[in-house]
Write a structure and sequence with these properties.
The complex is a heterodimer of chains A (about 325) and B (about 500). Chain A has about 325 residues and is mostly helical. Chain A is about 75% helix and about 0% strand. In chain A, the strands form two sheets. In chain A, strands 1-4 form a two-stranded antiparallel ribbon. Chain B has two domains: about 240 residues, Rossmann fold; about 240 residues, 3-Layer(aba) Sandwich (Rossmann fold), CATH 3.40.50. With about 500 residues, chain B is an alpha/beta fold. The chains are: A mainly alpha (about 325), B alpha/beta (about 500).
Chain lengths: ~325, ~500
């Protein structure tokens, strides 16, 4: 190469594409969380009490775990609307299995295993409809959302299903080192998911499929398999979440359990900076998104804001997050 | 050719570009460019990738805003602050990537955004009539009601031109219009340019093809690294000078010495058929050979390559590699057989545009870098080596592909497949939309690889490329192989005879 050609710069595509590459864009969720924390600490004296903080974390861990799975689905270019109904179905069946199996720890372990497997199987069902039946994920999971909720109501006869196992409540209600068990589970799963997404070939393939499925298939990536497995992961996460939730309450109410969880999970993923169009996103972003939603709920309660207005605030936060993302992308 | 450039010196320029500067986040990509454009002339714009051609023209049609300088239109200073204001002045651009809506038909696209209406409802009849008149004027047989998705690339380009003409265009900017066309279609486009010129339309024409510029343009400007290097009457400048001014130094030996294949056959394809697409394709590729595939667009060359790579389901195919029969059902199988395929559609099928250079290069060969987890250190080291070996110009290896010029993207694409350590490399239009200097680098790289025993298939619509690079050319037409040329028989005329069906009838 001669001296002359060395100096040729690559022409920037557009001024805005440069803006999106500034580091602040990717740290926006973290900055938002810090601002929210500072505001909350000042606005309410009760906020920083350890008990309150652990409660917030416990409350968010159920949807948080689901949001971890949702992150994979959304990065791969899909969406899963059925997770809320799936929580209810898996929860109901989990508790029914538990009662059928009798008392004791082994029953709990068996029920947990069954719940996770069932979640994964239901996720696989979604995945099959989408990849084999070539149905858009939005439509396919809209249908299964309705089907799973209705099945839940049917098998429970629309009545609350209560666990008779004396060990079961320990999981969702217990603590280890002063931190609730569900928070531990959420943290460990988040770590595993982060490594899976960021540091394995599988995670790289998920991003490639979501960015451009054609390029992925021309690059020897098994696109349908990768897309399918993201729904399986989402389902397995739902299974874990369902166990924790029903254990915490020691019962499952088939009509209410997991209601609107899909929206909370999707909102957390989006607030965390994952593009709804797929291709890029992070697990830590989702974790932050989940915590932001949790703190907002908590603060609205602490400040005595009407429960009816909480949806408005949540909606506004989602809008702001998407608008910020949209500006960064264009 | 009548020297309109001379004549036009007497008339007032239709457009004056005065000291235009453009910066992206403080990086200056255009340095005080000053040009006068005269009515009715064809102005060629030459330059390497990243020289600032597209940036300049995008400023003229309102897609980018200038940082400083002024633009005069018909003698008056104008502010072009968006495509709409450019359009109202009569400036239109035909982009490289067409802006057509596939689900609408021809006339709906042509009138998109300024539909005729009568009493609040669309006046489809008038739009159809006007469209028909326009298409007649362009001398194309297009049906105003044809769906865009059913059209060929050349036809889509016609629709874009018609779309520009429907709103009294005075200056028509074409960004590399011929890269997607076959030779025959290029002739039609050239005839059209001549007719537009007669109507008094001013044409600004970006191209990489020096011959074309020489033939088509009255004057040409050359940009290099954002500077205006020269403005010449086309009759006063030779192609060699154009190339020299573009790269800033003497450019000799674009093509390396030809290599002949060895006797050993590495790839044998027999009875390859796909119903309606490919008919009984048979050929052999020798070790160390560069084999060309010629033909018009739609002749089945890309389909042949994709079938070999396991990207298409074949009705029949017997493929042997190094004498061993292999069965290739997907790209993974092909990679395992040490085959590589660079698609003609580098952005749509080749590279993940929002991945960085490192992740793109390792996408197929990722398993190599897994030590339990992916070792980003190994990955980056390898990417760095390719960046140096191919002279890939980017801010860093962490740059997303979207921020690289076309030539550098192509080099990353090549690196991505080289990282799979292939023995057989299939290149589909490897230099489409790439400047002459990068082309040369790629040619010499291909040559170097064949010296090391790699075998290469080059699919190209640029006859010059096939003639310069390959030692054997297979010509396809309508999904079948219709001819094979060797040595001195490889020339424009012979290839076109076969490609167009004058020789080698099926």
């Amino acid at each position: 190469m001669s001296e002359n050609t060395k100096i040729i710069m690559t022409a920037p595509q557009s001024p805005l594409s440069r803006l999106s590459r500034l580091p602040w864009a990717s740290y926006a969720p973290l900055i938002a969380l810090l601002v929210l924390l500072a505001f909350s600490a000042i606005a309410s004296e009760h906020f920083l009490i350890p008990r309150n903080l652990t409660n917030v974390l416990r409350q968010v861990s159920y949807t948080g775990i689901i949001a971890l799975g949702m992150t994979f689905v959304i990065i791969a270019g899909g969406i899963d609307l059925s997770v809320g109904s799936m929580v209810a179905l898996v929860g109901v069946i989990c508790v029914m299995l538990l009662n059928w199996f009798g008392d004791g720890w082994y029953a709990v372990i068996f029920a947990i295993g069954a719940a996770v497997l069932m979640g994964a199987a239901l996720g696989a069902l979604n995945g099959l409809i989408i990849t084999r039946g070539k149905v858009a994920s939005f439509i396919a999971t809209l249908a299964t959302m309705s089907i799973l909720r209705s099945l839940t109501l049917y098998i429970s006869d629309a009545g609350e299903v209560v666990s008779e196992n004396s060990f079961f409540p320990e999981i969702g209600g217990g603590y280890w080192l002063g931190i609730p068990i569900p928070v531990w589970v959420f943290a460990i799963l988040a770590l595993i998911c982060h490594v899976l997404l960021k540091h394995t070939a599988y995670g790289r393939h998920v991003c490639a499929v979501g960015s451009n499925a054609t390029v992925a298939s021309y690059s020897a990536i098994k696109v349908r398999w990768v897309y399918f497995t993201t729904f399986v992961i989402a389902g397995a996460m739902v299974g874990i979440s369902a166990v924790l939730l029903s254990s915490r309450l020691n019962s499952v109410s088939p009509g209410d359990a997991g209601l609107f969880y899909e929206l909370d999970a999707i909102a957390a993923v989006v607030i965390g900076g994952t593009a709804l169009s797929g291709g890029k996103g992070t697990i830590w972003g989702t974790v932050i998104g989940v915590i932001i939603l949790g703190i907002i709920n908590n603060m609205l309660n602490l400040l005595g804001v009407s429960a009816y207005l909480q949806g408005t605030v949540k909606g506004l936060v989602i809008l702001i997050a998407v608008l910020a993302q949209f500006k960064g992308d264009r | 050719m009548p020297s309109t450039a001379q004549a036009s010196l007497a008339v007032q320029p239709i457009m004056q570009i005065d000291n235009i500067v453009k910066e992206f986040s403080g990086v200056r990509v255009l340095h005080k460019v000053t040009i006068d454009i005269f009515p009715g002339e064809v102005l060629g714009v030459l330059g390497e990738n990243g020289a600032g051609k597209s940036t300049l023209l995008k400023i003229l049609c309102g897609i980018y805003q200038k940082t400083s300088g002024s633009i005069y239109f018909a003698g008056e200073e104008v502010q072009i602050d968006g495509p709409a204001s450019a359009k109202s002045l009569g400036i239109s651009m035909i982009p490289q990537e067409f802006n057509l809506i596939n689900t609408l038909n021809v006339f709906e696209n042509i009138f998109l955004g300024n539909e005729y209406s009568k009493g609040g409802l669309l006046d489809k009849k008038s739009m159809r009539i006007r469209t028909k008149a326009l298409l007649d004027e362009l001398q194309t047989e297009l049906d105003p009601d044809a769906l865009i998705s059913t059209l060929s690339v050349a036809q889509k380009q016609m629709v874009e031109i018609a779309k520009a003409l429907v709103s009294e265009v005075k200056v028509l900017i074409m960004d590399e219009p011929t890269t997607v066309l076959t030779d025959h279609e290029v002739k039609i486009l050239f005839a059209l340019v001549a007719r537009l010129k007669k109507r008094g339309v001013t044409l600004v024409f970006i191209s990489h093809k020096l011959k074309e510029v020489k033939k088509l343009c009255d004057r040409l400007i050359i940009l290099r690294d954002g500077y205006l290097v020269s403005i010449d009457d086309v009759d006063d400048i030779e192609e060699a000078d154009m190339a020299r001014k573009m790269v800033g130094r003497e450019l000799n030996q674009i093509y390396p010495e030809k290599v002949l294949g060895q006797s050993e056959t590495v790839l044998k394809v027999a009875n390859l058929s796909i119903k309606g697409l490919l008919h009984d394709i048979n050929f052999e590729l020798k070790k160390g050979e560069i084999l060309g595939f010629a033909g018009l667009i739609g002749a089945g060359r890309t389909e042949t390559a994709e079938a070999i790579m396991g990207l298409r389901t074949c009705d029949s195919a017997n493929i042997e590699i190094n004498g061993e029969p292999v069965s290739i059902d997907n790209v993974g199988d092909a990679v395992a057989c040490k085959m590589a395929y660079l698609s003609e559609d580098r952005q749509g099928k080749g590279l993940v545009m929002n991945f960085d250079i490192v992740k793109n290069i390792s996408l197929i060969s990722l398993a190599k870098y897994v030590r339990g987890l992916i070792s980003t250190k190994l990955e980056k080291q390898q990417a760095q080596q390719y960046v140096e070996r191919f002279d890939i110009k980017a801010a860093s290896i962490a740059s997303e592909l979207i921020n690289l010029s076309g030539g550098n993207q192509q080099k990353v694409y090549l690196a991505k497949w080289m990282d799979t350590e292939p023995q057989i490399l299939i290149l589909d239009e490897p230099t489409r939309g790439i400047d002459v200097n990068t082309k040369k680098e790629i040619y010499h790289f291909i040559h170097e690889m064949t010296q090391q025993g790699m075998s290469v298939i080059v699919i190209s619509s640029e006859l010059e490329e096939l003639i310069g690079l390959t030692s054997r050319v297979i010509v396809m037409r309508e999904g079948a192989i219709v001819g094979e040329l060797c040595g001195d028989d490889i020339n424009d005329q012979e290839i076109m005879y076969y490609a167009a069906g004058i020789k080698g009838g099926v």
